[in-house]
Design brief:
263 residues, alpha/beta, seven-stranded parallel sheet, 10 helices, 51% helix, 14% strand
């Protein structure tokens, strides 16, 4: 699927990573529709990239359907919007739980359901979902976030098989710890000792590769994190024991404290 000249819906455009994605897509000649919750945050991107903006809260089911209607005819969906959802489950309210799953899992699935038929009819298109390495292996205090991202990975890979032969591709792009911008970077937390970060440009390159080459899964993470995720996926009990008291405990405490007000 070529990005140049394509009509692209990018959700979560006002987040740090969303802004970097918008810049790259516009530079490649895409016709952008961007969404976010705040009109004032979308306006600079509209002026900078000639994008069309749709204000929408993806925790609101009606807003999700309205966004899909306003983005009718989209060639490529890049589902980037997400909520942190960190913290122990017993410290979260049912409303916070609902919001985390609505934004991180339900909204991407509904947008795909509503936008894919026109792609199938035209014989081409792509659905790209921005997941996380937390969707392959989890840690304490991440049950909500990992639950949504595990679900998003399963949804994307299953949908890819559903749409095989239609000309519509599906990808899941899973970053590790991203520096400079994004949910992890804004917390100010340091990654666990020995764990490297990736740049926003690496994530964007992963998204472009996934779309243009129809790659099922792109893991944008250093080799040590990809190896740990592979081991944790196969041996979750071992991963749990290794994590306890390890260098990641400090990082988790910092992240949870910083993201508490964003649930």
């Amino acid at each position: 699927m070529r990005i140049s000249g394509a009509s692209i819906l990018l959700t979560g455009a006002t987040g740090g990573l969303g802004g970097v994605l918008a810049a790259e897509l516009a530079a490649r000649g895409a016709r952008l529709t961007i969404s976010g919750r705040r009109a004032d945050a979308l306006e600079p991107l509209v002026e900078r990239y000639g994008a069309r903006a749709v204000v929408a809260d993806l925790a609101d089911a009606a807003d999700v359907e309205r966004l899909a209607a306003e983005a009718a005819g989209t060639d490529i969906l890049i589902s980037n919007a997400a909520l942190p959802g960190s913290g122990d489950l017993l410290d979260c309210t049912p409303e916070q739980l609902d919001r985390a799953f609505a934004v991180n899992l339900r909204a991407p699935a509904v947008l795909a359901r509503l936008l894919a038929p026109s792609m199938v009819e035209s014989g081409g298109g792509h659905l790209a979902f921005i997941g996380s390495m937390a969707g392959k292996v989890t840690t304490r205090s991440m049950s909500l976030y990992s639950g949504g991202k595990f679900g998003l990975r399963g949804f994307a890979l299953g949908l890819r098989q559903d749409l095989h032969g239609t000309g519509v591709g599906v990808s899941i792009v899973q970053p590790g710890f991203v520096r400079d911008v994004g949910m992890f970077a804004v917390t100010g937390a340091k990654p666990p000792t020995g764990m490297r970060t990736v740049s926003p440009r690496q994530v964007v390159a992963g998204v472009v590769r996934a779309v243009e080459r129809d790659v099922a899964e792109v893991n944008v993470a250093p080799v040590e994190l990809r190896l740990l995720a592979a081991i944790g996926g196969q041996f979750p009990g071992l991963a749990e024991r290794l994590q306890r008291g390890g260098p990641g405990e400090r990082t988790l405490r910092e992240v949870v404290a910083a993201q508490r007000s964003s649930r």
